[in-house]
Specification:
Radius of gyration: 19 Å
Shape: flat
Order of helices and strands: HHHHHHHHH
Mean pLDDT: 83
Largest sheet: none
Number of helices: 9
Strand content: under 5%
Number of strands: 0
Distance between the termini: 28 Å
Helix content: over 70%
């Protein structure tokens, strides 16, 4: 849910920060956000493989990611410019941070992949759908000021967080997170 306001308001942020004429640079921020979304699946897998001392393939995956990204960036950059380089970054992230990490996960663990892959696909679809709706809506509006952008970003973040919490996070995980947060708040005397 963090990525949705980042993608929606990236052009507005660039406009406020750099001024008129640089709004197209917002697509760089959106592309980076989409590639970072892939880290939501690769980081837990990396942590699990490190904990099991079965992390030898992680270095190979990183090396392949660099090779894929640089090769595609050169090829697509020559053809499409900055857009091609952004596309290369997104493709290399999905191939390595998602696909190859899932291959390592499958090879070194006995846990089922179906739920992980399904949740990742669902979360990616939610991010793409909500970001597309937000970009479409705010593209018809004049650029927001700092306060307006931050206010809308907060509202979009809260709405997307609630949606992701309900759709993607399993009930048992929600209960566990809620009890941990409540326990910490009680300990800090911020909650009854």
């Amino acid at each position: 849910s963090f990525f949705i306001p980042l993608i929606i308001f990236s052009e507005n942020f660039i406009y406020l920060w750099l001024g008129d004429g640089f709004e197209q640079s917002g697509m760089i921020v959106a592309a980076i956000a989409m590639s970072l979304l892939c880290r939501t699946i690769s980081r837990p897998i990396q942590t699990l493989l490190l904990a099991q001392a079965t992390h030898s393939g992680l270095s190979v995956v990183r090396l392949l990611q660099v090779l894929i990204n640089v090769s595609l960036s050169i090829y697509l950059g020559i053809k499409y410019g900055v857009v091609g380089i952004l596309l290369a970054t997104i493709v290399s992230s999905y191939v390595c941070d998602v696909c190859l990490h899932l291959v390592l996960y499958r090879r070194y663990t006995e846990y089922r992949l179906g739920t992980i892959v399904g949740k990742f696909i669902l979360s990616t679809l939610v991010v793409v759908l909500l970001s597309s709706i937000g970009i479409f809506y705010f593209s018809t509006e004049p650029p927001l000021g700092w306060i307006g952008m931050l206010s809308y970003s907060a509202v979009v973040f809260i709405m997307s967080f609630v949606l992701v919490w309900i759709i993607i996070v399993e009930r048992s995980t929600r209960s566990l997170i809620t009890s941990i947060v409540a326990s910490n708040l009680r300990r800090l005397k911020l909650w009854g």
